[in-house]
Design goal:
By secondary structure, the chain is α+β, with helices and mostly antiparallel strands. It folds into 2 domains: 2-66; 73-303, 3-Layer(aba) Sandwich (Extracellular Endonuclease, Chain A), CATH 3.40.570. The chain is built from 8 helices and 14 strands. The strands form 4 sheets. Strands 1, 2, 3, 6, 11, 12, 13 and 14 form an 8-stranded mixed sheet that branches. The radius of gyration is 25 Å and the shape is elongated. Bound molecules: 2-acetamido-2-deoxy-beta-D-glucopyranose. 2-acetamido-2-deoxy-beta-D-glucopyranose binds next to helix 6.
């Protein structure tokens, strides 16, 4: 009698365990498949990435640890400035402006270790067109050749020394814009890039978003108009200005991140100018760029 009950109980427990285990296994494999589909979708269409946090929340119980996905989430921690033609690279994220053949913006996340690695060199990288951009919207090496302009990096090569492939990717022409060489690319702009890296060495974690501006000028009679040059057969726009919006994460446990914005004219600037004279209200950058930066961060006031 008791033996019969024991057997029955044992059977019941075994049965229940099997049901539970297969339920969990089923749920897990389901999640695996869904995550993989999502990854595929993100590769094909980055807009899926934008909505993916909402999907992920549903089954964050079994969160998969995908390195690339993790990195992207980190770079875009403070939100997307815009959503036009998003392009994901290994160590930066870019929005491409097909009309002007220059990015709208490039976002990076800087940490100390990626700045100090000794193995990576920009000498081993070379400029090349990004063939994933449709050919009629792509800028080419020929466009820049003899144009009188430098091939200026938006995401600086020196920020991506963690891996040679990361450094290489900054040389895609999607990340390049026509810049005045002497007095700008090798002058004030370079200084600004070094300043961003110094902030990283001091604070440990810095987010930076870089892009071009096409600022209007006042004509006689008071009307505004935008004028900029275009180079090459692809007609690559020469931005009138470049901006960087920088966000620095505080090392203090409850310290809030703060941000500051810089706008530099794409002209030969005299040596010895103080970078702080280029500080700019973030709202002004948003106004000219048509972008929205880092909602909810504390902005330092522009006291030059
Ligand atoms: C970087 O680019 C160079 C030149 O284009 C190439 O020879 C090298 O293999 C690339 N390295 C990596 C890690 O992608």
């Amino acid at each position: 009698m008791t033996r019969k009950w024991q057997l029955l109980a044992l059977g019941l427990v075994l049965g229940l365990t099997t049901v539970c285990a297969s339920f969990v296994a089923g749920f897990y494999s389901h999640h695996e498949i869904a995550s993989r589909r999502l990854q595929q979708l993100i590769q094909e269409d980055p807009y899926a990435y934008y909505i993916s946090p909402k999907i992920y929340k549903v089954f964050s119980f079994f969160r998969t640890k995908d390195e690339a996905d993790h990195r992207l989430r980190q770079i875009m921690k403070y939100g997307f400035p815009g959503l036009d033609d998003l392009r994901l690279y290994s160590d930066f994220v870019l929005s491409y402006d097909r009309r002007n053949r220059v990015a709208h913006w490039v976002c990076e996340h800087l940490q100390v270790d990626a700045l100090q690695s000794g193995q990576v060199s920009r000498q081993r990288a070379s400029y090349r067109p990004d063939l994933t951009v449709p050919s009629n919207f792509r800028s080419t090496l020929a466009d820049y050749h003899r144009s009188g302009f430098d091939r200026g990096h938006l995401a600086a090569a020196g920020n991506h020394r963690g891996l040679q492939s990361h450094c290489n990717e900054t040389f895609f022409l999607t990340n390049i814009a026509p810049q005045i060489g002497r007095g700008f690319n090798s002058g004030a702009w370079n200084k600004l890039e070094i300043y961003v890296r110094d902030l990283t060495l001091r604070f440990g974690s810095v987010y930076v978003c870089t892009g071009p501006l096409y600022k209007p000028k006042q004509r006689t009679g008071g009307k505004l108009s935008v004028e900029f040059e275009m180079i090459g057969l692809s007609m690559v726009a020469v931005p009138t200005h470049f901006f960087k919006v920088i966000i620095v994460e505080s090392k203090l446990p409850l310290g809030k991140p703060y941000m500051e914005g810089y706008v530099l004219p794409n002209t030969a600037l005299p040596d010895g100018l103080n970078l702080r004279s280029f500080l700019c209200d973030i709202r002004e950058i948003e106004h000219y760029a048509g972008l929205k930066f880092f909602d909810g961060c504390f902005e330092i006031s522009v006291n030059k």
